[in-house]
Amino acid sequence: MDLTGRSIAELARALVDGRTTSRALIESALGEIAKDGTAFTRVTAERARAEADHADRMRTLGAAQGPFGGIPISVKDLFDVAGETTPAGSAVLRDAPPATSDAPAVARLRAAGAIVMGRTHMSEFAFTGLGLNPHGPVCANARDPARVPGGSSSGAAVSVARGQAAMGLGTDTGGSVRIPAAFNGVTGFKPTQARVTRDGAFPLSQSLDSIGPIANTVACCDLIDRILSDEPRAAYPAIPIAGLRLGVPMDFVLNDLDQAVTGAFERALSALSAAGARIERIRMETLNTLPSLFANGTIANAEAYEFHARSNFFDGKDGYDPNVLRRIEMGGRMTATDYIGLVKARAVMIAETASVSAPYDALVLPTTAQVAPLIADVVDPAAFSRANGLALRNTNVFNFLDRCAISLPMQRKGETPCGLMLVGEHLDDAKLLAVAAAVEAEF
After folding, report:
1. 108 Cβ partners below 8 Å, 6+ apart?
2. Which residues pair with 279 in a beta bridge?
3. Does pTM surpass 0.85?
4. Which of 107, 224, 263, 309 has its Cβ near the most Cβ atoms within 10 Å?
5. Taking the C-alpha atoms of 92, 98, 101 and 105 in order, what is their torsion angle to the nearest 10 degrees?
6. What is the bridge-based pairing of β-strands 167-171 and 211-215?
7. Which domains can be identified in the chain, with CATH numbers?
């Protein structure tokens, strides 16, 4: 059975009904990887086969199966997996000692029955939004190989879009789950940061890092989020689209949209309105201050620099991706005043935007301002920096505001993929996923 476009629930039903086996799903994934394996930095084929055979035997014996029950997944290269090195997309860390245990996020998915196919390609140290990495083969966009895959969880999204995994475990510090999901035409969910432990995940920014899934449907993301969550979380009751109140921020996040994104976004709003949702265009003027606020650097710049300096990684900085090194070194030029000012401004902006968004069931906006740029157009460092900034712009806002957010595909069939982002309140993740399911049904 081909994994492409299939939900986890659909695959689980097929396993229970005897229409497929875990081994067949693994072989299907491996067959797709054999066609183009650049989404992966490491494939653990024999282990996956052995685990699939075990899952099939247990199913035959009537043993209880977890919600994944022998379904293949992929894991971003920055998560600890017992017995494997955690390079975080870097050549500098390829010879680091192997991890002694799985990261909690990986362990929770395994306990639910998931089978890990391998580690996926990512931007080095998770610090660009385009998903390119000079340390190995190019992982191109799954829908158009001339375009970037989006990052930093590039391989996670590409593996799902290519039918090489039913979900990809990723991280999102400034958009690293939602951007590649949007660029590859799949779904990506960023939870409120505090809900999922980041233990066992190579850090970029302790204040902003979050762990979330990339999959084919909102229901998949909801299931995975309940597995990953530190605290038990029940599913939220279904919400009808009619009567939903959705706020469209008019400040900052709608600037410089390309024609394809503008067209898809306006069609999406029209479809939601026709289905009975109340679309209200609202002002969030405080967002217009973000460019000046970030002029000397961001929280991620400062915290990445501190971590790399404290870890003595800069002894090997000649081996860094130059596009990543520039961003990290920017943090080294920031002052304590710069950093503390950002922390204080963040708290103020969180309160200001919460007061504006509170009456709405969700905010709605494009995930990215443009579709995935062509790889050939971002070779020059200046062009790379411009495209990277634009890719991260909208998503980064809601990491800074500590919100939950999800990206859904909003392109028509045959169009270059782009994403519709829905944003919920802090810790209101379950409701956001229910709203997203209602929106998804209309598309």
Report:
1. 227, 228
2. 246
3. yes
4. 224
5. 30
6. antiparallel
7. 1-286+362-443 (3.90.1300.10)
Neighbours of 9 (CB within 10 A): 13
- Give the Cβ contact number of residue 199 at 10 Å: 11
Residue 197 burial (CB count, 10 A): 15
Contact 331, 297 (CB under 8 A): yes
Tokens of 135: 């340390």
- DSSP strands (E only) in 30-186: 40-43, 72-76, 115-120, 167-171
Distance, in Å, from the CA atom of 347 to the CA atom of 299, rounded to the nearest integer, reads 13
Residue 347: which residues within 8 A CB-CB, separation 6 or more?
A: none
* pLDDT the model gives residue 75: 99
Token pair 């217009």 is found at 288
Task: Work out the average pLDDT over 399-411.
Answer: 98
Annotated catalytic sites, by residue? 76, 152, 176
Residue 282 burial (10 A CB sphere; 0-12, 13-18, 19+): middle
Q: What is the pLDDT of residue 277?
A: 98
Separation of alpha carbons 245 and 279, rounded Å: 6
**Helices 8-16 and 22-35, packing angle to 10 deg:** 130
For the segment 208-231, the average pLDDT, to the nearest whole number, is 98
- Per the structure block, which two tokens stand in for 210? 């979050």
- CA 24 to chain CA mean position, Å: 27
Give residue-wise pLDDT tens across range 14-48: 999 999 999 999 999 999 999 999 999 999 999 99
Structure tokens at 247: 């706020």
pLDDT in tens, 286-321: 999 999 999 999 999 999 999 999 999 999 999 999
Residue type, 164: Q
